[in-house]
Amino acid sequence: MSGTMQILISVLDANDNAPVFTQSVYKASIKEGAPLGTIVTTVTATDADDGENGKITYSISSMSGNTLGIFEVNEENGAVTLSGKIDYEKRRTFEINIRASDEGGLVDSCKLIVDVIDVNDNTPDIHIMSKSNVISEDAKPNTVVTMINIEDADSGENGKVKCSINDDIPFALQSTSNNFFSLFRVKAQDGGSPPLRQTPTTLLSTCIG
């Protein structure tokens, strides 16, 4: 005589799998002056365990330099947001180490590299290197009146400066080297007899960047 019976065995999950990021290095970019709360990127990790064993919590473990507090990560979904002011002229790249941990203390980490994009937020600065306070009315053409240096802290096209002076005065502006300009006195006279010359009392210049 024999009999049979069915036994159902439930396998309980153990926390034997650590979280794993989908990428070891993430890259993102953000414009300087972006409003606080701007989402930079989202990091993602998975955990093969079930239930609470597979629940992942995200956190920032370290940042390069003294920049803690500029970025923060949502502990539930991995969204990295801007929480402080960034300035391209002060810092152009941030490296952030982010950790993913499960309920059992198993962890994985990844690196996030954030590049700051320059915006045109700096006006050109004009520095007078040398100048003549007075000039003779019979000074020869191409006499250097003033040497100026132009600086713009922005990069690329945002930092390229074009200088000009108003057209109704007998002076000319000439670039002598990178961001250095010379202001010359030029001859201006009419075709009368005797010819008349103009001696300006003011000088206006404009630099646009």
From TrEMBL:
GO terms for molecular function: calcium ion binding. One of its GO terms (biological process) is homophilic cell adhesion via plasma membrane adhesion molecules. Keywords: Calcium, Cell adhesion, Glycoprotein, Membrane, Repeat, Transmembrane, Transmembrane helix. GO terms for cellular component: plasma membrane. It holds the Pfam family Cadherin. It is a single-pass membrane protein. The keyword Transmembrane helix applies. InterPro entries: Cadherin-like_dom, Cadherin-like_sf, Cadherin_CS, Protocadherin/Cadherin-CA. CDD domains: Cadherin_repeat. This is Cadherin domain-containing protein. It is found in: Membrane. Residues 1-21, 22-126 form the Cadherin domain. It comes from the Eukaryota.
